[in-house]
Design brief:
Blueprint (H helix, E strand, L loop, with lengths): L1 H11 L8 H7 L1 H8 L10 H8 L2 H6 L6 E2 L2 E4 L6 H14 L3 E2 L27 E4 L11 H29 L2
Parallel strand pairs: 1-3, 2-4
Length: 174
């Protein structure tokens, strides 16, 4: 998980020369927030992530995060593990804040008989990256395909950030 966190942080952070680091961090807030504790807990996001959600109400009233980008991933010890519900928790929160959700943008892997568990998006989740690691193993046991999917999501967020910034610059004539 540490490698996934580091790779995702590096991939997710994109800053235009016109943006302050604070704005950059806000743009990827949900991805960073989910990196610290991405595991579903009894069918939804953990208590810590729910506490972060409750702390966003002042930003909701002022729509501070409107038109910013959001993305997320989650991990659990089971192949399903209610990961989709956890990601839906994030997407609804992002929508409430007027944010643009960046999905994984991959076709499902591991679906025909000729496919394998090494395919990207092996768990078939569209909304974000979902990973699975056996509960009795450490973070170093995260499946390589899941790490690659998280890295793909990070690149997709970075690409979306570049396109968003370029669109704003073009619209402003700069």
């Amino acid at each position: 998980m540490r490698r996934m966190r580091q790779a995702s942080r590096e991939s997710l952070v994109y800053r235009s020369p016109r943006e302050s680091p604070e704005l950059c961090l806000e743009r990827v807030f949900f991805a960073w927030g989910s990196l610290d504790e991405p595991t579903p807990s009894l069918g939804t996001a953990t208590a810590r992530i729910s506490q972060v959600r409750r702390g966003t109400s002042k930003r909701w009233f002022t729509q501070d995060w409107a038109n910013k980008l959001a993305a997320g991933f989650t991990s659990s010890g089971f192949k399903s593990g209610d990961k989709l519900h956890t990601l839906q928790f994030f997407t609804v929160l992002a929508a409430q804040h007027g944010m643009h959700w960046v999905n994984l943008g991959l076709m499902p892997g591991w679906k025909p008989s000729t496919a394998s568990e090494c395919d990207l998006k092996r768990l078939g989740i569209f909304v974000g990256a979902g990973t699975q690691t056996d509960m009795d193993e450490g973070v170093e046991a995260v499946h390589k395909a899941d790490i690659a999917a998280a890295e793909h999501l990070g690149r997709r967020v970075a690409d979306a950030a570049r396109a968003t910034v370029a669109g704003r610059v073009a619209r402003l004539g700069g």
